[in-house]
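User: Structure please.
Assistant: Input sequence and predicted structure:
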Amino acid sequence: MSDADARARRVWIRDPLAILAEEAGGGIVVAGSRIVERVAVGAQPAAPVDETFDASRHVVIPGLINTHHHAFQTLTRAHPIAINKPLFPWLKALYTVWGRITPEAFRLATRVAYTELLLSGCTTAGDHHYLFPKGLEQSVDIQVEEARSLGIRAAITRGSMSLSDREGGLPPETLTQDDDTILADCERVLNLFHDPAPGAMVQVGLAPCSPFAVTKRLMRESAALADRHGCRLHTHLGETLDEDEFCLSMFGCRPVDYLEEVGWMSDRVWLAHGIHFNDAEVARLGKAGVGVCHCPTSNMTLASGQCRTCELEAAGSPVGLGVDGSASNDSSNLMEGVRHALMLNRLTYGAETVTHLDALRWATEGSAACLGRSDIGRIEPGREADLALFTLDELRFSGAHDPLAALVLCGATRADRVMVAGQWRVIDGQPLGVDAVRLREDHSRLAKALFGAG
């Protein structure tokens, strides 16, 4: 325990209904931003506490960690020009809308996504923002401001698109930037916002969008820049068979070969989706320690396929969870994503192979590993006090016998309390400092204006 933790106000979260931690049936003690003690059933904390919170109605789990999202897409949920389409046609349809997003609309889209995540028990919000048309050049700055205002921990990746449809890529030229502009802004936001220290509230990674949206030069130079700054690298890879065909046609190789060619076969990297890998590619990714963010909800919505989660983990790849964009998921609810991960992976591997504890582990420890963080993702002394507390008071939980299993199997979707870095950010199911009714009204108004602008 540090001197600062020893002097901090000590809060005992006492006697939970259930808790996802060993030897903590009597609760945990939080001091400052960290967990400092686990309390056994019937025991008392080792030192006096300043405050006690009665958690006897609550199931306590580590705060969920989202490792892939596109917050701007909350403005185009269930959009009629894109529903019922697979990825490439879906993207091409929505590119025509996304280029009209204003800074005001983007700020509210981010606020909605972060608030939804918090309400679902998520304490670390990962976002892959790759949309920088004219007027949205300060997007990362806006996302950092919104994360700090809400008090959510943020893993923001400065995404990019530089390969337009005129050069053989997928996005229109109006949504791309040139490599030099992108790299200069990556350097800027890393210098301004990236905090590599344990307990960091904001970390920045670099995230060229996908093989069909960026140049090889941008991939290579992003890797070099990440190495200099000690930050993570992120991209979409292996999401669809269309992507396989694109890489073979454009680069003469499969996506994993492409990843290796541009210098990304590293444990600094985590990938979004990672569905269409063969056995040899799974082994190569695992040996290199490349992480994979499983996005079950969007993968089912777009019918992209099923991530090989169990094989990837067995090979050595960290596996985390992500909600993905709110236009392919139509929600920013990570607890719902945990349930979808359980169901989809049971369909793939069998009921005996994947448990509710596996799905929760992917959303906590696995996601933390994808982000390269050992200070979050578990309830144990020394880790950050990022916690999600759920009640089982709704009819859907009546008759449930295992509280932790009930969260997943009975479909919990909203946390009653959420703590980030030792501070309550959701109380009685409400986000602190957010007028949710006004936020919904303002966000909806801008979304409708965006729809009508076409």
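The chain has two domains: 3-62+380-431, 64-370.
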